[in-house]
Write a structure and sequence with these properties.
With 426 residues, the protein is an all-alpha fold. Helices cover 79% and strands 0% of the residues. It folds into two domains: 207 residues, MFS general substrate transporter like domains (Growth Hormone, Chain: A, Up-down Bundle), CATH 1.20.1250.20; 214 residues, MFS general substrate transporter like domains (Growth Hormone, Chain: A, Up-down Bundle). The longest helix has 33 residues. It is globular, with a radius of gyration of 21 Å. Bound molecules: ligand L6ULR443. It is a multi-pass membrane protein.
Length: 426
């Protein structure tokens, strides 16, 4: 700790490492359903609608709760909320793994979702507490990329924990709960460090008042960004985190281990490419064209995957670039577009709509598969789901192009608005 009460560099990077470890465990739990989807169907007779619901139910409470969660983080501080929400997430992961029936598992995923999205905000706020403008984006990118490593590990788990998978659906979910426990442990250590710092630090400035009327003054570019956020995340999360492994097994004839490995490369690419793309955009000083490029790759990738004999590597590589590029640009662009005084309100609204989209996409995709009887014996039954994902991703890409066109040359329309009073017309 420095003499003026600000954290030392060593302390800041230690906190960043702990937050990254906490995100790793949290993202592992989030992505633990996809690899057991086929086992849940075979051993417990779950329909695709039920499997979709296990991930949709994560998002459903957050259609409302995420706004409350943001306010709680401001009110009680990032450290306290990180610890509380990590504990809720662990309880949810444990309940999911130990439940004897679908209702109990769904309750576990609901509990996990209630904790996890507010946990995501709290961890971003935690990094913001410890890093200044010069290193903040890089530190956030690093935290996010270690989180992606958790998603990668979940997809690789059928290979890494083959014995657990051979024993059935439950042991893999208990392993996920163990990662939830490490996330909680990292959060608690961070909380202890933060308590020592805040005891001697000057009081934090009071958070800005949350004014709903401000939303009316966000510029057109913000609404394009919001629409892209909803559509792109809905498709990428409902496909990559819920149905893609099963899709690769049933349509492309891959075994579980190979399908999980194929899916995992998307996350592995993001580990390295997300901070790299963020650094590149900062250097070039352009955001909108990169975002449009990343958004366009998603429908292209899905289209290549619909060909049963096409090389899956092509689609995987395209989704990998999209999955690295879009988040790397979207969050810095959101902060640039809104400025610091309206960032919390803006991101809260984006995540409300995003969670509604993710829940809806999981439910619709599961329902479409069940209706068409999608299975290894009937791979064409997945066509409706792919058409749905493809259509949504095309509309998302159109929004990204509109954002780019509305940004004008050199993104001048996307300049920060923080110099304006919060209620000035946009
Ligand atoms: C930073 C961003 N997170 C989100 O958008 C969350 N609202 C949803 C994340 C769900 C999976 N962990 C991201 O992960 O890119």
């Amino acid at each position: 700790m420095n003499t003026d009460g600000t954290p030392s560099r060593a302390m800041a990077w230690l906190v960043c490492a702990l937050i990254a470890a906490a995100l790793y465990g949290n993202f592992y739990v989030y992505d633990s359903i996809g690899p057991v989807a086929d086992l849940l169907q075979q051993q417990r007779g779950f329909a695709d609608t039920q499997i979709g619901l296990l991930n949709a139910i994560y998002s459903l409470p957050n259609i409302v709760l995420i706004l409350v969660g943001g306010v709680l983080v401001d009110r009680f501080g990032a450290a306290r909320m990180t610890m509380i929400t990590a504990a809720i997430c662990f309880a949810g992961a444990l309940l999911t793994a130990l439940s004897p029936n679908f209702a109990g598992m769904a309750a576990g995923r609901l509990l996990f979702g209630i904790g996890a999205e507010t946990f995501n905000i709290a961890t971003l706020a935690a990094i913001a507490d410890y890093f200044g403008a010069g290193t903040l984006a890089f530190a956030m990118g690093l935290g996010l990329s270690i989180g992606r490593l958790g998603s990668y590990s979940a997809d690789m788990s059928p290979n890494w924990f083959a014995t657990a998978y051979a024993s059935g659906w439950q042991q893999p979910l208990l392993i996920a709960a163990a990662f939830g426990a490490t996330s909680l442990a990292a959060s608690l250590v961070y909380g202890l460090i933060d308590r020592r710092r805040t005891a001697s630090a000057p009081p934090k400035p009071v958070a800005e008042k949350f004014v709903f009327r401000d939303l009316l003054h966000f510029r057109k570019a913000y609404w394009y960004l919001l629409a892209l956020c909803v559509l792109w995340y809905s498709v990428i999360l409902a496909f990559r985190s819920t149905f893609s492994i099963k899709y690769f097994q049933h349509v492309h004839g891959l075994d579980l281990g190979t399908a999980g490995e194929m899916n995992s490369y998307v996350f592995l690419a993001a580990v390295f490419a997300t901070p790299a793309f963020g650094w590149l955009c900062d250097r070039v000083g352009r955001y909108a064209p990169f975002l449009a490029f990343g958004a366009l790759l998603l429908p292209l990738a899905l289209w290549t995957m619909t060909w049963p004999h096409a090389n899956l590597w092509i689609g995987t590589a395209l989704i990998g670039v999209s999955f690295s590029l879009v988040p790397a640009v979207m969050w810095p662009l959101t902060s640039r577009l809104l400025g610091p005084t309206r960032f919390g309100t803006g991101i809260g609204l984006m995540w409300v709509a995003q969670n509604a989209g993710i829940a809806g996409a999981n439910l619709v995709a599961g329902w479409l598969n069940d209706r068409a009887g999608a299975s290894a014996q009937n791979p064409a039954g997945y066509d409706a789901m792919m058409l749905f994902f493809g259509g949504a991703s095309v509309i998302g890409a159109v929004c990204a192009l509109l954002l780019w066109f509305s940004a004008g040359r050199r993104d001048q329309e996307l300049a920060p608005t923080s110099h304006r009073p919060a209620n000035a017309p946009a």
